[in-house]
Amino acid sequence: MSLGDVIFRLIQWIILIYFFALNSSYLLFTFLSLLGLFRYRQLLSYIPYKEILHLRSLKPISIIVPAFNEEETIVESVHSLLALEYPNYEVIVVNDGSTDKTLEALISHFKLQKTSRVIRRIIKTAPIKGIYISQSYPKLVVVDKVNGQKADALNAGLNVAQYPLFCAIDSDSLLDKYALLKIVQPFLEEPFKMVAAGGIIRLSNGCQIEYGQVKKVGFPARLIAQLQTIEYLRAFLGGRTGLSMLRILLIISGAFGLFRKKEVMAIQGYRQETVGEDMDLVVRLQKYLREKRIPYLIRFIPDPICWTEAPEKLKSLTRQRNRWHRGLIESLFFNRQMLFNPKYGSLGLFGMPYYVIFEMFGPFIEFLGYLLFLFFLLIGEINSQFAIFFFILAIIYGIFISLFSILLEEYSAYHFPRYRHVLSLMKASFLENFVFRQYLTLVRVKAFFDFLQGKKEWGEIQRIGFKGRQGNDK
Amino acid sequence: MTTQIYIVLYSLFFLFGFSIFLFSYISIRRLIISHREKRNQNLRQLIESAILKMLTSDYQNDHQLTLKEYVRYPEIFTEVLLEFWQTLSGSSRQQLKNIFSTYLKEKHKKDITSKRTIKRAKAAKAFVLFADEDEAITIMNLLQDKPLVKMAALTALTLNPQPQIMKIIFKAFIQESKIPLRYYFDLFTAMGKTIEPYVKDILHQPLPEEKLSLLVELIGTIPLNFLYPELIRLSLHPSKEIRTKTARTLGNLSLPLEEIIETLLLMAEDEAWEVKAQALKSLGKLRVKKAIPLLAQALFSHSWYCRLNGGHALVRLGEEGLEILQKIARQKKDPYAADMAKMILDEIMIMQG
Fold it and tell me: Cα separation of A100 and A273, whole Å?
């Protein structure tokens, strides 16, 4: 056997083993998620979340909303946040040097007045130009600052926040009315250990939205959003529930997460040099707590919903996924000393390696797999019968995992009301395996090179906005 | 065909089969659930009207047969009964208890010994409202159960606050190591002032800091005013956390007694800034005029929280306090004190129009 043959066989085996390992880990997480969701559902049937509203031991929450050029949506977003069901909270909107009329819209609509509030600058941020409060909306605080990216805006919000728990959300997202009551539940169960909890992000595309609340859940009309729906279900319900159960959860989405402020302040808040500040925060938080030997818990809760709009233009989706992947690589790179380090327990030995091998390098190996497959097929080194069957197998494995995610969706919130929505989800889980998946793999491969080149830009994402959402019954 | 192809085909066959199974399961489950929902909605309406008729009719025996039909649906029956309990009061509740005893008690008694935790917890919850006194022993056995069932049982017991039962609940609190203590906090808060003698009793027992801290907070939340001497004793506790909570609770009691004021004045000089800041806040809450010099001095403190709480406390003291704040805002020796005073004055002007 020549050296070329040995290398060829080795690569073949690596790709095959990788394929099965990746899909099996997804399957394992999905199984775990099913167990976790089942338990969570049973618990909910015993303790209704609305009862939590009357508990005296509820801790107040500061909601921090960084906003940059959001003049179209900011008023509605803030209104929806001010109408949440929670006994004691404040909403801190941080206008991060918007160049449009975001601040003016807030000032005029909420009748804000500038105050000379003194804040503790525990975390360094770009200069704050002014802090505004309103007599009519006492829960609302608006911070106007010099532009400094999202992480900087969040840190400014942290400096202003006065409550022990804080919830970071995106200004273009909408929280379900009871989302805070649901996400705070683990903090009631484990008040000393719980440091962070993440909720589920669902797509608002196709939903009917009125007064900042989703009135009717619908299914997106455009295929690109439908394909993302199944992706989100798989990532949140299938992935994060399982990772959280294994205690190796490294991401709490920046769009919706609840944190204990004390620990976040201790690590100087969000890192400003990354576009993946949400993942980086969770990784550093765990690193800090493990180094200090402080017992902690980080949980993903499948019920509290944050609605966000998925990009419906390919260009926007490409930018978003490029940024996400760069964020992931940056977070892993900045905290690389945790990798395979037994000092960080399961996180260092399993969590970080999992993210590096399957999430960071995953697109590379998948892309390489496609290339080699085609190459060897062309030169006749692979049996064409085997190639076809293997390709079908790969697709069916993907569909199988997606179907499991749909089952998880059925068990969790039962949020797609019509049977035809479920059928559309099933259709999407089939279609995503052709072109869409391969395209996103390519986007992520490019993101790796962008990271190497030191690209830091966020990339604008074109959105329709919630006002434009009249819902559809597709 | 090679072995590799066989393996792939074999896997394909199984995965395909599983996928078809999943697809069918999801579809059939959907259909069953929507059918069940419709049925439950109808049943709920029927049970509601049957209970209503029984409660309002002079000839209750006539409706007993109708209700008996629904014993086959104990979950919905219990849910409807619990909803009625929340909306009704007085003698009607006794009638609901009778309905529970006649139709559901045996089923729930069985469930209490079930192997499924949720079933036991749910059964215990039903007993919360409908159990007779003689049932208390059955529930007490559940205190040795898993945390969830124990929580349900404890909730049940608190609705029957007899001295013997109260002792059991507080004993459970002292021995507790599994259930989050916050649960007891909510439970005790709901029980209100009835727990005063029991709290006093256990405050004299050696307790871990976490439990002691929770009791101190509880005294201020309910509030248990007669326990203020205990708080004065705890103001000298070696733990900073306990002293901080004691200072806060003394303010929450809203009792402007000389002993309390003197204690708070002393605590405002504590070595820990956390205790100081809380004591300053409480002095403001109690509107202690003689604390004005101390509060004004707090605005020049190194601690941001002491400056903030001192300033807010001055606002609570009315015009006299506001004048001092204005003076501090005008002075230029300490810009930190001036900024804090300005901020507080500013926000008062905005918030009070």
Answer: 25
